[in-house]
Design a protein that fits this description.
about 500 residues, alpha/beta, about 45% helix, six-stranded mixed beta sheet
Length: about 500
């Protein structure tokens, strides 16, 4: 009889809405499927912004951006069609059991009956969506407003260099960006649009933006690691699958859970639907009573979720995959991006030379704008040393893999939703400073438009590497040589942490 009272209290409080439900937005927890507008707002609160020394003026801008929000690829659309077929079988079976009086259908969400993929019948996939077009267009408008002196002259292909990979969604992103950047600067139509050039290299040889397709050693590493990643995910998927089966009386498989999570991400990101697939993972919240007995607390935790723990764990498995296959999980993931970093260094050196030779405006490059993929942006962010803390800086110097991102509820810096959402971008802006300043030139780094203080001694070591020796033993000694001498000296002298003097400048 003594145990009846806490149980009654528990049942009474299960229906109390949680305050976390009012502020929780699943669209902020979709790893690399997160929309840029959502990620940008969240990320802005996590950084301590760096500042530009007084009197410095932007003279050159390098942009490395991911394509905007896209539709599911053909393979993933087929996965959703398979999910629909399996759900139909599961629902038919459970309906037969209900007709025998063995189970109730009340727990089954109404939307599951007769559900079909929103992309059913589509023959093509992976294309840039209208949301993705808006992301890149509006990014360009903000960049032009932020650096007006960089974009104050008419377009010329040698002044504003625009590059994309040979994938339609990246070139479409480049076009959407260019329309926003040069809007009103041309003579086409009522909007005075301007025709501009977007160039691409072959996927097989594009070591600047598609290095992940060109690096044989990386492709072998990824092939070997993908099964390892799946094994790491399995315990989480099995745990959640068991909870879903118990909750809805449907015999979901591990693959069903993975596909439902993928559907949740697509619905939330592309369609702004959060009350269907996403709601399966956290149907209600539990309020822990202040000063309640340990028995009540343990029973409450046994009966259901707390603070969307299932979504947090699924997000973590996605972030784990990005970390291992694209990020700090192995040095080859980011060292193969060295040609891109070298290209940026060389463009800055050329911009400084043009400045010091007093070249006429319009005769030299002012911006180099690149559009690629998460597989490009994530390694490049790692080359810049972003999202590191504590001793991790020293580990990266030694090219050691970092520990995996900690499992929820522990906090972690590594979140795909912030690091590489759709339209994620890194900007390196070269500034010319007055002669009386501590340094004549200064580079500001912005991640998703937020100025970030740079970690010390990060970039210089990778510049000593050679893409061909990293990526293919057969080609060792061939191809471009490591960047040394004036370029590395130049690069290490351009950066310093926010608030530090020249004598404490960062050796990147």
């Amino acid at each position: 009889m003594a145990m009846a009272i806490p149980l009654v209290l528990l049942l009474a409080f299960l229906v109390v809405p949680s305050k976390t439900d009012e502020i929780f937005d699943v669209r902020q927890h979709l790893s690399t499927v997160t929309r840029y507008s959502v990620a940008k707002d969240v990320a802005a609160n996590d950084y301590v912004a760096s500042t530009i020394p007084d009197g410095c003026t932007a003279i050159h801008l390098n942009l490395v951006a991911r394509h905007g929000t896209r539709s599911p690829t053909k393979n993933r659309m087929r996965e959703l069609d398979n999910l629909a077929n399996h759900l139909e079988v599961l629902l038919r079976d459970v309906k037969a059991e209900a007709e025998k009086g063995n189970i109730s259908l009340q727990k089954i969400p109404a939307w599951l009956w007769g559900w079909q993929s929103p992309w059913k019948g589509r023959q093509k996939g992976g294309e840039l969506t209208s949301k993705g077009e808006d992301e890149l267009y509006n990014l360009a408008v903000r960049i032009r407003e932020r650096f007006p002196n960089l974009f104050d002259e008419e377009y010329h292909q040698d002044t504003f260099v625009i590059k994309a990979t040979q994938v339609p969604r990246t070139s479409a992103s480049a076009v959407a960006f260019g329309i926003g950047l040069f809007n009103g600067r041309g003579s086409l139509g009522a909007g005075k649009l301007c025709a501009f050039s977007v160039t691409s290299e072959s996927r097989a040889s594009d070591i600047l933006l598609s290095f992940f397709n060109c690096c044989e050693n990386y492709k072998e590493f990824r092939k070997n690691q993908e099964p390892v990643v799946e094994k790491l995910k399995e315990p989480i998927l099995d745990e959640i699958t068991s909870a879903l089966v118990s909750r809805y009386q449907l015999n979901f498989t591990r693959q069903d859970t993975a596909s439902l999570w993928f559907l949740c991400k697509q619905e939330a990101s592309l369609l702004d639907i959060t009350a269907q697939a996403c709601s399966l993972f956290s149907p209600f919240e539990i309020v822990i009573l202040m000063n309640c007995s340990p028995f009540v607390e343990s029973l409450m935790l046994t009966l259901g979720d707390t603070v969307h723990v299932q979504i947090a764990l699924l997000e973590w498995t996605d972030d784990l995959e990005v970390f291992i296959l694209k990020g700090y999980g192995k040095s080859i993931n980011y060292l193969m991006g060295v040609p891109l970093l070298q290209d940026i260094v060389q463009s800055m050196e050329q911009a400084i030379k043009s400045k010091e030779e007093y070249l006429i405006p319009g005769t030299y490059e002012k911006a180099r704008l690149r559009f690629a993929h998460a597989e490009t942006v994530v390694p490049f962010s790692c080359l810049l040393g972003l999202f590191l803390e504590g001793s991790e800086f020293e580990q990266i110097q030694r090219e050691q893999p970092l520990e995996l991102p900690p499992k929820p509820p522990q906090k972690r810096n590594w979140k795909g939703s912030i690091m590489a959402p759709f339209a994620a971008n890194n900007m390196l802006v070269l500034h010319s400073c007055p002669d009386n300043n501590s340094s004549k030139y200064f580079v500001q780094v912005l991640h998703n438009e937020v100025p970030v203080p740079m970690p010390e001694r990060i970039v210089n070591p990778p510049l000593k590497h050679d893409f061909y020796s990293i990526c293919s033993a057969k080609l060792e000694g061939q191809g471009p040589k490591p960047v040394t001498g004036t370029l590395t000296q130049l690069f290490s002298g351009l950066f310093w942490q926010d608030g530090e003097t020249q004598k404490n400048k960062v050796e990147l």
